Amino acid sequence: MNRKDAIAAIMSTTCGCEAVLSSLGLISREIYDCYDAPNKFYVPGSMGLVSSIGIGLAVSRPQTTVIVIDGDASLLMNLGTLVTAVQLSPANFLHIVLDNGVYGSCSEERTMSAKANFEEIARITGFRHVYLVDAQEELKAAVKEAIGRGPAFVRARISLGGRRDFARPLALEILRKRFMDFLVESDIVGRSKSQ
Amino acid sequence: MKTDECNNTIYRILHEAFLRNQVTFATGIPCGGQKVIIQNILADGRITHVACTKESEAIGLSAGAFLAGRQPLVYMQNSGLFGCSNDIASLLIPFRLSILMIVTWRGIPGEDAPQHLVTGSATIALLEALGVPYRILTIESAEHVVDDLMVQMRRDWLPGALLIRKGWER
Questions:
Q1: Which CATH architecture describes the domain B3-114+123-165?
Q2: Closest to B67 (Cβ–Cβ): which among A84, A173, A179?
Q3: pTM to 2 decimals?
Q4: A21-42, pLDDT tens digit by residue?
Q5: Which of A26, A117, B54, B133 could form a disulfide with B160 if both were Cys (CB 3.0 to 4.6 A apart)?
Q6: How far is residue A23's CA from residue A21's CA, in Å, rounded to a whole number?
Q7: CA distances from B148 to B26, B50, B66, B100 (A)
Q8: Residues from A in contact with B at Cβ < 8 Å
């Protein structure tokens, strides 16, 4: 399972009604290039903060499932985010880390994730559900089970390789407005469904 | 008015201004200079308060709350403003998220703590270089300073900073 396979597994398991936030570099660029939709929010700067943005969103909108697709180096830059997530414990928050052990968007310099034991940290910190997965089917099963049962954490170990020639999200203000509109409209859809 | 009494009046005015400007989400790292501001936020059930580990995280959390349609407030010291300056520059500004930052300004003349002197003298330069609008709290401006800043932030879709000089009341 490489980055492409992991992203494909997550996308095939979600319904498009979740808010999906992705970390910088090739993770966001692959999702933008191949799966762009109003429910996506790309974080191309502020390395490490995608999980914080996801927590802020999840706490503010309990009715929306929030899925964060993070990288191992980004998580290492903001490990405190795991404590914050548990402190607030939003049931609608799912934190997935695609762990390739390198700075994949740079020149694949090694990160320290191999000995970081993210899933152990998440478990000890108090995440409700924690998964370590190595294959697409395991990742799909974890995502399916974790949605709505957060705070949940998935460490997906992935291999290197895959395209690097993706388009970049550039019109950030427009993408942000589109994402906010998606959230507002999902409330309207939710209301009409429940009537 | 005695200093304490005067301060409490100003903190009440500020808190009312936060509410008037629809602040419903707050996070940050405490500074002794904002003790009463934070106490007032924590005591107010209309504002969702979230703890965090550092100022960068506060910027991220507040960005998420903004996306959800809330008006966030982030409190911090100016030392923390330097720590999260990239997050203001690469997240709040390009996505145009109007986050209100309440920043204690340490390192002004009269400060005795040497670790604050460099950041203190560079604080205005940092905000101006980033293009972040700011106001400096004074007794005279307290009544309208938050409204003024918020008008500019919402017009220009920018974060903004209210600077509170540590020891300003002296």
A1: 3-Layer(aba) Sandwich (3.40)
A2: A179
A3: 0.96
A4: 999 999 999 999 999 999 999 9
A5: B133
A6: 7
A7: 20, 26, 20, 12
A8: 41, 43-46, 48-61, 78, 80-81, 83-84, 87-88, 172-173, 176, 179-180, 183-184
